[in-house]
Amino acid sequence: MLRTVQKGVPVNDQLQLLIALQKVDTTILAAIRQVEVLPARLGNHESAFRNAESECSRAERVLADSAEKKRGKEREISEAKDRSAKLKARTSEIKKSTEYQANLAEVERAEAGVSNLEAALALILADAETARQTVAAQKARIEQEQSALVIVRQEIAAEAASKNDEIKRLKSERKKIVQQLESEVNNQYMNLMRMHRGVAVTEAKDAVCQGCNLHIPPQLYVEIKSGYAIETCPECRRILYHIRLEGNGLSAVSVVSEPTAAD
Hints:
By secondary structure, the chain is α+β, with helices and mostly antiparallel strands. Helix content is 70%, strand content 6%. The strands form two sheets. The chain has a four-stranded mixed beta sheet. The chain has a two-stranded antiparallel ribbon with strand order 5-6.
């Protein structure tokens, strides 16, 4: 039987059991929440891996596009140079001054066109080099993210197994406690658990319910501190207990010992 005795005060065993049960349920719920967020943790790493793959694919497309543009621009430059060479060769054959001047102007425009095309090619080559560097960087990142993902999957699997073992153990402990509770008390507890998102039993501290922050009437607070009976908050209906500081430690009906093998 769970029992903690405050000097001269008989302890309500059902209250002690309720406090122990709340402690176990709080731990179970926390463990369940931790298991529930594990897929999200894994998802974050998987997302980073997919993002690296996506960035690499995008850079590879840019690189392929740059290669195509390079080939096209090189053809244009070759054609422009051929046209410029033909215009220059024609210069020596022209006899009339007006035609000669016109041909020189054509040569200048052709050479300017070649220069512009070569400048455009330089930009394409720069883009291609940037894309090559990006591809290399993203491939390295993919390897890193893949290695990290393997480790995270192993860690998450181990953590999930550990938490599930803990939950199983706690549920076994919980069952032992519930077996000692009166059915009416257990029903009250479970109703409050559903009503208050897993917190049915809470501390009354400095005459204030720590569940809803209601100021507890003086006489009720005295009763809660006595530990003779199960008392509830007038506002939220949670079951209340009290911790009293005495000297160098705690002494109160709410300080619950762990179940022993005999329990």
